[in-house]
Amino acid sequence: MKNHGRLLQGNEAMAQGALYAGARFYAGYPITPSSEIAQECSRVMPKLGGVYMQMEDEIASMAAIIGASLTGAKTFTATSGPGFSLMQENLGLAIMGEVPCVVMNVQRSGPSTGLATKPAQADIMQIRWGRHGDQELIALSPSSVAECFSLTVEAFNLAEMLRTPVVIAADEIVAHMRENIVIPEPGEIPVIDRAKPTGDPAAYRPFAPAPHGVPPMSAYGSEYIMHVSSSMHGPDGYSNNSPDNAARQIARKNGKFEHHRADIVKTKAFDADDAEVLFVAFGAVTRAARAAAAKLRANGVKAGVLQLVTVWPFPTEAVAELGSRAKTVVVPEMNYHGQIAGEVKKVLGADADVRRVNGWNGQIITPRDILKAI
Amino acid sequence: MSRRSEIVLAGSGGQGVLLSGTLLAEAAILEGANVVQTVSYGIATRGGTSMTEVIVDDGEIVFQQVEKPDVVLAMSPEAMKTYEASAGEGALVLYDTTFVEERQGKNLAGFPFTDTAAKMGNVGLANIIALGFLCAASGVLTQDALETAISERFSDKKRDANLAALRAGAAAAASVFAPA
């Protein structure tokens, strides 16, 4: 008989995915609907020789995972909207200091404390633009328990490869969903570790130009001295106010994402090649979109789905290719303003037939809701 | 033969319907099926509507929510109000007569799950009695698979109490649904 695996919750799968990727430091402040991630870490981390720290708030949680990452550990935290808002300042620090870490934002209905137990996908722009300054980061969005696991491993790999924070843009639906999942064996999914400095320690510069824009990263306490500052710094990490230096640092810190774009930007297409009606979806809503497309296909309409596995950087190429081929593009998402629909319009142009299906009352978008747009 | 069952378990926070759903899902995996369980609940640990949906299928489960239930368990008047109409659409609707007024109708069956649990010495077992009743009445899963799922989750006295509750529920369904 086929191995149907075991029943796992999305939050548990994210925690397990982090452990698979080698993460051994979790700091967080439990909040619905992400709390089971903290719970799982509190249970498992001590047994693996790792650290589970319950912090006083999400500001400290973010600070703790940055500090621990600087010592060489793979680190993460998990939260939801109110906590994610508190993390923004230190998330900016992690971007400026190029500190690998993973932040799981299990999105719930807002604003503010909102509907604490109900799903939303309304933090998409906050994830991208929640901090000040010129910056980029990566966000991945799972649509199933299996993806909660695999995308978390991927998130750590990208964090390590690019020296960057990566956000898991989950939603309450996938986080609280249980499905049968076969956990990959060790080695089945590659696990990437950050590049460490070699050669003469005295010559080490933690923010120097590097191939593909990512300099090797030392660890606090090693002979390769690393200084990290939130202020603009030169290649050595110490304050540097030169405009030329600032131009180079900002260009490199953003350019590294362009160098690695093929590693970062992932989509999945379902019956999309000949689709005249294309649904562009992400997270749990992908499943309603796939069911809607199947119903249309059954009625002779060429419909398909483009799933944005990577939400940021935005998958411009796939949206342009499949979207320009389709007559109608529909973007279902659990937010009021059409945060992803706006990006799709930006890619396809003002004349394209891009339709929005939005839900903002904490209820799940159904295939029926989506089909009303056709 | 393609297998698909859509099950809704609904009640008030604290009645244990979410755990019943998880046990159903674990039993479905033991039977070699794919399964999705989703949950919906309020911000309080006691009271408020608490609901879980379980879909069992041989194939891939694309949309994760129940669209047309085959079986519904209503453990509270609010849950019954929400799902009673499903009986008219072909779903078997089971309800706890401890809290829900008895009624006649096609596809409706009531049983005092919570009163029975109280008589067994623990009202907390009402959800498991209901689970045994539901599976025996609907045949969506075998009692063997459920007993294994319970035995894997609980140990010692808790396991014995839950197994006894499951069997009591199954026996009650056998008597309620016995040919007249």
Automatic annotation (TrEMBL), chain A:
> What are the residue boundaries of the Pyruvate flavodoxin/ferredoxin oxidoreductase pyrimidine binding domain, all occurrences included?
17-234
Superkingdom of the source?
Answer: Bacteria
Where the record annotates domain Pyruvate:ferredoxin oxidoreductase core, the positions are 275-370
Which InterPro entries does the UniProt entry name for this protein? PFOR_II, Pyruvate:ferred/Flavod_OxRd, Pyrv_Fd/Flavodoxin_OxRdtase_N, THDP-binding, Transketo_C/PFOR_II
Q: GO molecular function of the protein, one example?
A: 2-oxoglutarate synthase activity
Transmembrane parts of this sequence: none
EC nos = 1.2.7.3
**Keywords in UniProt for this one?**
Oxidoreductase
Task: From the UniProt record, give one GO term of the biological process aspect.
Answer: response to oxidative stress
Family matches, as Pfam families: PFOR_II, POR_N
PANTHER family in the record, alphabetically? 2-OXOGLUTARATE SYNTHASE SUBUNIT KORA (PTHR32154:SF14), PYRUVATE-FLAVODOXIN OXIDOREDUCTASE-RELATED (PTHR32154)
Q: What is this protein called?
A: 2-oxoglutarate synthase subunit alpha
This protein's species is Rhodoplanes roseus
From TrEMBL, chain B:
Classify the source by domain of life: Bacteria
- Residues covered by the Pyruvate/ketoisovalerate oxidoreductase catalytic domain: 13-170
Q: Which SUPFAM superfamilies match?
A: Pyruvate-ferredoxin oxidoreductase, PFOR, domain III
Q: Which InterPro entries does the entry link to?
A: 2-oxoglutarate_synth_KorC (IPR052554), Pyrv/ketoisovalerate_OxRed_cat (IPR019752), Pyrv_flavodox_OxRed_cen (IPR002869)
Question: Keywords on this record?
Answer: Oxidoreductase
Protein's name in the database: Pyruvate/ketoisovalerate oxidoreductase catalytic domain-containing protein
**Which Gene3D superfamilies is this protein grouped with?**
Pyruvate-ferredoxin oxidoreductase, PFOR, domain III (3.40.920.10)
Which species does this protein come from?
Rhodoplanes roseus
A single GO molecular function, which one? oxidoreductase activity, acting on the aldehyde or oxo group of donors
